[in-house]
Amino acid sequence: MEKIATRKAYGETLKAVGKEHPEIVVLDADLSKSTKTNIFAQEFPDRFFDMGIAESNMAAAAAGLAIGGQTVFMSSFAVFATGRCFEIIRNSICYPNLNVKIAATHAGITVGEDGGSHQSVEDIALMRVLPNMSVYVPADAVETACMVRYMAEHDGPTYLRLGRSGQPVLFDDSYQFEPGKFHVVKDGKDVAIFACGLMVSVALEAAELLKEAGIDAAVINASSVKPFDKETTAAYAEKCGAVVTVEEHSIFGGLGSAVAEVLVQTKPCPMEMVGIKDQFGQSGKPADLLKHYGLTADAIASAAKKAVERK
Amino acid sequence: MASKEYLTEMAKKIRCDIIEMLGKAKSGHPGGSLDMAEIMAVLYFDVMNYDFNDPQKEDRDYFVLSKGHGAPALYAVLCEGGLIDREELGNLRQLGSRLQGHPDRKKLPGVEASTGSLGQGFAVAGGIALSMKLNHKPNRVYAVLGDGELDEGLIWEAAMSAAHRKLDNLVAIVDHNGLQIDGANDDVMALGDIGEKFASFGFEVFSVDGHDIDALKDVFAKAKEVQGKPVAIIAETVKGKGVSFMENNPSWHGSPMSDEDYAAAKAEVEG
To answer: The complex's ipTM?
Structure first.
């Protein structure tokens, strides 16, 4: 299967929407070659601003540019774009509900060799808790492009979570993104696996393993973490009677928490959470790190079996 | 050009409004609101291109109150300009009010940036100025900063950025009253030579008596002439100016007034 990094799809789509939308400006904090905003910068040098290694000022300046009428995309690594800038995003972007898009790359542990200081496993939690903020976690390059296009054409603060490593391309040109709508990538009746980002492709592998074990698993791409798709979540909990969540993020505050929050209030059922278990990452090759932290098809299949047994 | 007499009268009205608001709210920041009265009067009624009848006007100058706790001074000037009804001043800090404890652009027309978390307003002002430059628009951006606010690292990130982008449409006015919540700047976090710091970051720097109407008019006129770099005006002020028992007293940064305090303060500013 073809692999493309979502950050690459981001940079290329930015360039495309930049042509149609002269109001778009892009800010980066000295990482444009890594975040791929350099693709936009080469095409539109006057609308690209390298803000230097000063993420806080980048976020505040983004707010000011939005007040001036621009649609602003700002990029850095997820750990800095959300963590370092958190209170500026809160008070200067979300509180006044300004049109700033935070497209953060290098999210999760598949950053790899740079290690735990650079591997954000808390960014979904930080962004999801902010009023007015939307949170999108694309599963592949196609979905990334659809989300970037959507963000360019709709007002309001949005967080887009992108990865460093190549991700399998799951969708074709017919894919359409709609906020608050999950996609059932593979239907099933015994257990519902809700995944986002890179883990959607790994969940699909897990579904194959489960099939061999006689378990018919549904795989749902929960890419619109906020607004959330309560209807699909409750419907699949009811239909399958067991749920697994999978994310390259802490099991605290991310997709797993969002699913649990909805299910306890709608269709409570046995649920297992696959994700980073209250710890930091470390250096290593992305594939080795996924294995070390239990983010593999085997681990997802085990969690699914456990959930099914608890029915 | 507004006359000195008119602007002096406006500054007096602004002080009266501030005391009325804070006295009724029994909450808020008198010291750092009162000391901005002349700066606000000169900016809004003489310097800025601003139409109170059309606060969203395309070519308006932008005002950002980076020291958001001085909100009553901003509300007072908006009231004197007719954007806020006088009766509404009594709603400051009350549930459902447009006059939030710190300025909220979603609630009140005339508030350009939601501020209050120190350091951010100046950086947002830099973003607005950058937007105007990008679109080749003549609008200027005025930001009032507290001196205690200069402790924030973000101020200096924003200063570096404004100079790098040659934002000569951006004017930072530092309300230098020498005091912050816990005491004197020099005791809490010594600022050194503020003007020198901004100059070393690439700003054109002016100093002014922040209560002298003529001097303020003059310094803002000079600021308009500066090309190729942003401007910092260090305005020497007296915290609590106009109310003798509040002047230079850090305990009046954010203390509520008793009924007696309110009556005494009202008599002084109206006097």
So the answer is: 0.96
The reply to whether A175 falls in a domain is: no
Domain ranges, residue A188: 183-309
In a domain, A176, yes or no: no
Indicate yes or no: pTM above 0.95: yes
- How close does chain B come to A183, measured CA to CA in Å? 34
**Cα dihedral B28, B34, B36, B38 sign:** positive
pLDDT digit string, tens, across residues B198-234: 999 999 999 999 999 999 999 999 999 999 999 999 9
pLDDT tens column, B71-98: 999 999 999 999 999 999 999 999 999 9
- The number of folded domains in chain A is 2
Which among A68, A91, A96 has CB closest to B132? A68
- CB atoms B120 and A92 under 8 Å: yes
| A57 touches B: beta carbon within 8 Å | yes
Residues of A with a known catalytic role: 55
Which of A30, A47, A67 is the best substitution to test chain B (most B C-beta atoms within 10 A)? A67
